[in-house]
Amino acid sequence: MSIGEEIKSITTSLPNGVRLVAVSKYHPEKAIMEAYESGQRVFGESHVQELQRKHNALPSDIEWHFIGHLQTNKVKYIVPYVSLIHAVDSPKLLAEISRQGTKVGRKVPCLLQLHVAQEETKFGFSVEEAEAFLASGEWRDLPGIEIHGVMCMASNVDDEQQIANEFDTAHRFFRHAKETYFANRDSFRECSWGMSDDYPIAVEHGSTLVRIGSKIFGQRVY
Ligand SMILES: *Cc1c(COP(=O)(O)O)cnc(C)c1O
Fold first, then answer.
1. Per residue in 177-214, pLDDT tens?
2. Helices (H), the chain
3. Distance of CA 193 from the midpoint of ligand 1 (Å)
4. How far is the CA of 138 from the centre of ligand 1 (A)?
5. pTM attached to this predicted model
6. Fold classification of 3-217 (topology level)
7. Of all atoms in ligand 1, which is nearest to the CA of residue 67?
8. What percentage of the chain reaches a pLDDT higher than 90?
């Protein structure tokens, strides 16, 4: 299937309320334009320099999502235009995004990354750390950010039950946080999980944003 056909087949399979983030990291601008021409407007990147280059070169109505691990010293480069930062994994990073957001007069939409997978190497707050952070109320005093929900990555395993359990853990945390801290904030509504290999499971377990790369664009050449 062509890039445009993949996008169509994925988006028509997604239930109402679930949006596709087309993960275009390592793929050329030409491939992004093919997706764009099929109607896709939301793209995910995970390297700051690459995002800068593509943002400058491509149509201005693209919504760029930053989905990778973000270093605090690079926050300032993307804050003026990024639509959503998915993987906020520390209070320090959130504070820096707020500081830079304030400078440019924005409330930058952010998701808290939860560590629910078994792999040691994945970044993110544990459920306990995320709960402690929200309970601390620190985030309420950050004028340059708005927390829109949570993000996670499941373990890279074949066991679908394990993957489902990990998404459920994140979804339970999301619902608890919504009730406890964000009940009157409509903007807290995003659950970012599901990639090429596990997005059908993610959609059954509360996802509102699926981040799909290789299924659309083919294998990445690093
Ligand atoms: C690369 C990446 C994806 C997309 O992965 P695919 O398996 O190619 O769909 C999704 N989320 C994050 C955080 C990524 O880094």
1. 999 999 999 999 999 999 999 999 999 999 999 999 99
2. 3-13, 29-37, 48-57, 75-78, 91-103, 127-136, 160-181, 199-204, 214-217
3. 10
4. 30
5. 0.97
6. TIM Barrel (3.20.20)
7. 13
8. 95
